[in-house]
Specification:
Elements: H1 14-20, H2 23-26, H3 30-46, H4 52-70, H5 83-95, H6 108-144, E1 149-154, E2 157-163, H7 164-189, E3 191-192, H8 208-215, E4 219-220, H9 224-229, H10 232-258, E5 266-267, H11 286-309, H12 323-347, E6 349-350, H13 352-357, H14 366-375, H15 380-397, H16 406-410, H17 418-422, H18 426-431, H19 441-454
Parallel strand pairs: 3-4
Antiparallel strand pairs: 1-2, 5-6
Helix pairs in contact: 3-4, 3-6, 3-8, 4-5, 6-7, 6-12, 7-10, 7-19, 10-11, 10-12, 11-12, 14-15
Bound molecules: arginine.
Length: 455
């Protein structure tokens, strides 16, 4: 039984039926499909487009289907065309001819667009929770490590010491922007296509505002052609999801690097690492590698959706059925990766001693030696040149700036004094970066407080 069989003399080819079916993907929409259909039926009945009694029957039937699916008392035919047709078929089995009225003033084109928007808005609310959990874990650990220091890097070379808290909080703010982006997308997603019917609207006296209110949409779409064929919201979401994955991949990359014996700044928990079938000593950071690897899925989904929409004429085209494959791939990947990142952070152990050790003779205090000369009256360029020479000499002598004696230092400039040497302590170097947003513990504590206020 097809929703559109009347026009056709010959049956659809079996292979084509399988080729065009989307139920394996869109079955996920069942709950939102029921919700939007209930709202639509209520509106039709309220407007007198269908009789009150039929309206009641339809709504009851849809509730019953909800109950049946929730309790696995009824399952869809995996060969059916899509979930929308399957639900309508079940409604007919349950309530008889009244079921044939639910599709009045509606098309699958506005129905599927509405369902997808509703599904995504609900999924985003869950995703925001996942982001918040990762951020909460970062905050918790940052609080314990405002004085734990490690080399801050540029070009992956030791640059200036920073605190572990400062480093972790950098990711907090990335995820904060991700979260904002998703929140800001919600009003755009919650624009109701339903009532646009196939493409041109309908002659029935529908009340779209009522439907929007019933389902919890913030507004109704302005243009029916646009409404049934707009998939910007899918692409926008996949772009936001790509950004989250990019941020996760940077954190993963650092965890992978930092868990090597060369760094050993961190040890990942047994819960999220694996061994080798041949090398008994191995403990591999698979969780971080898998998250990093799965970035490809989400970027791929974004590219897939963009390409699918390119140059499509107005309005609905069947190409758009593919949107959900990309959307769900992106959604589920980013969701599980965030959950795994939370577990990874919860179970990791930071190695403060290793971080501290790596700062020895690393010259990440060189800027401070130059700043010292500037405070004593030299221009920064002159100071930079002189300290460059000090560093060069130290590299040759295989020692750090902090290992120099005063006479050794004064060979490079007479303005160097004991104060200059004292400033070479890495902990102090870090503590003096007091500018707003800097790595000094007091600034990082302020940062943490700001974060907690928004959290
Ligand atoms: N399964 C379809 C989709 O997801 C539903 C809309 C079909 N509309 C149509 N005119 N063939 O896009």
């Amino acid at each position: 039984m097809k929703l559109w069989g009347g026009r056709f003399a010959k049956p659809t080819a079996k292979d084509f039926e399988a080729f065009s079916s989307s139920i394996d993907v869109d079955a996920k929409l069942w709950a939102v499909d029921l919700k939007t259909s209930i709202a639509h039926a209520r509106m039709l009945s309220q407007q007198g487009i269908i009789g009150k009694e039929d309206g009641e029957k339809i709504i009851q039937g849809l509730h019953q289907i909800h109950e049946e699916i929730s309790n696995q008392k009824w399952t869809f035919d995996p060969k059916a065309e899509d979930i929308h047709g399957e639900i309508e078929k079940r409604l007919f089995e349950l309530i008889g001819p009244a079921a044939k009225k639910v599709h009045t003033a509606r098309s699958r084109n506005d129905q599927v667009a509405t369902d997808t928007r509703l599904y995504l808005s609900e999924a985003i609310r869950d995703l925001l929770q996942d982001l918040r959990s990762v951020q909460a874990e970062i905050l918790k650990q940052a609080k314990d490590h405002t004085t734990t220091i490690l080399p801050g890097m540029t070009h992956l070379q030791h640059a200036q010491p920073v605190s572990l808290a400062h480093h972790l909080m950098a990711y907090y703010w990335m995820f904060q922007r991700d979260s904002k982006r998703l929140q800001e997308s919600l009003p755009r997603i919650l624009s109701l296509p339903l009532g646009s019917a196939a493409l041109a609207g309908t002659g029935f006296p529908i009340d779209r505002q009522m439907t929007a209110k019933e389902i919890g949409f913030q507004k109704v779409s302005e243009n029916s052609l646009d409404a049934v064929s707009d998939r910007d919201f899918v692409i926008e979401f996949l772009s936001d999801a790509s950004m989250i994955m990019m941020h996760l991949s940077r954190l993963c990359e650092e965890l992978i690097l930092w868990s090597t014996p060369e760094f050993a700044f961190v040890e990942l928990g047994d819960e999220v690492t694996t061994g080798s079938s041949i090398m008994p000593q191995k403990k591999n950071p698979d969780v971080a590698e898998l998250i990093r690897g799965r970035v490809g899925r989400v970027y791929g989904a974004l590219m897939g959706a963009l390409t699918m929409m390119k140059a499509l004429p107005l309005s609905y085209n069947r190409d758009m059925q593919e949107d959900k494959i990309h959307l769900f791939e992106g959604l589920e990947t980013v969701q599980s990766c965030l959950q795994m990142m939370k577990l990874t952070l919860e179970t990791c152990q930071w190695n403060k001693e290793k971080m501290m050790k790596s700062l020895k003779a690393d010259f990440s205090n060189a800027t401070d030696l130059a700043d010292d000369l500037v405070l004593k009256g030299l221009s920064f360029r002159e100071a930079h040149e002189i300290v460059g020479q000090v560093v060069q000499a130290c590299v040759q002598a295989k020692k750090g700036l902090e290992d120099l004696t005063l006479p050794e230092l004064q060979k490079f400039h007479s303005l160097f004094d004991l104060e200059s040497l004292k400033k070479m302590n890495h902990q102090q170097v870090m503590s003096l970066r007091l500018s707003e947003g800097g790595t000094a513990p007091s600034q990082v504590e302020r940062q943490i407080q700001m974060a907690e206020k928004n959290h």
